[in-house]
Give the backbone structure.
Amino acid sequence: MLTLPIASFLSAVLSLLPLPHSWQARNVPVLSLATWLFVLNLCQGVNSIIWLSNYETEGTLWCDISTKLNIGAMSAIPASVFCISKYLELVSSQRASKLLPVSGWRSKFLDMFLCLCLPIVLMALHFVVQERRYDIIENIGCVPATFNAIPSILVVYLVPFLLIFGTFIYAAIAFHHFLRHRATFGTHIRCLDSTLTTASYFRLYVTSITFVGILVASTVLSLITMLSSPMHQRTHWSHVDLNLWSIMTYSVDDLPKATIRMLYALWWVVPTLGYLLSLFLSFGQENIALYQKALDLLRTKFTRRPLSEKEYVNHISIVYDLLIICSRIQFVSTTHRHSQTFNSRCQDRLVSRQHATIHANHRLSCVHAH
């Protein structure tokens, strides 16, 4: 089952590709969407490594964090898509020229509230309908444990369904605006937003429509899994807090095959969304230009750039001066060595002459003695 962590980590990396242009354009919904998909893919990849072919109770703090992030992402991703559709509808409308300059920052604050603050609120509310601390499933890892009751459906699934419904409405209105103004549509959106082109508009539109279709299917499947799975047996509401700190573990053989198939299908939704986000928003002309700038920066950072004529002359003069200094040092050292050799030879000759004189005087004295 190494396919699961590889798919998650690859999707996590690809989810980051739309970030440079989105940051430059201050596109809060796309930044939120890419960040949430990166975090979710990272969590799923780590889970699939830790609980590969096992379902032991370990990593309790990690599971507490990852399961709450999973609950938050159930509303954060639909909220990001909703904000994208809302923005596209506003840009394509005739009232955009009046509203965009006035409501720019107000719209960004609303986007940040829906994409960040609302998921945090729902993560806190999940404690109310939390059946257990979490569940551990073999090969998948820790998943949230939600009580099988109507209050759980309202807390966990109502907001995502409302956001998905609103996305459909805004997408339909945006398409209606495009049909009405298709002759001058490109000029219209360029006058309103310098970072938006017709191609990038339609990439965002296709992204929102594709994502909302997948989110509808995955949300319905998640609801069916909660209602029909033996992991979430229906009990009385008064028993909710009794097992709050308990942890249930399940092997693949403990669950019905239909439940396992649904769980794997839900698991693959997050990597698929990461791949689609990278496919739709990472290969536009504006993104490729930013990638090229980044590569040029790295090339100038780690490779030797060509020297200008002035720098070349300065470098040559420095090298020439160094060569002259080195040659003088070598000449002085050679001269000193030769002088030392000459002096030692003279001293040797002087000593040998003294020895010869002493020897001759000694022989002369011997002759006189005889």
Notes: The chain is about 75% helix and 5% strand. Residues 309-369 form the longest helix (61 residues).
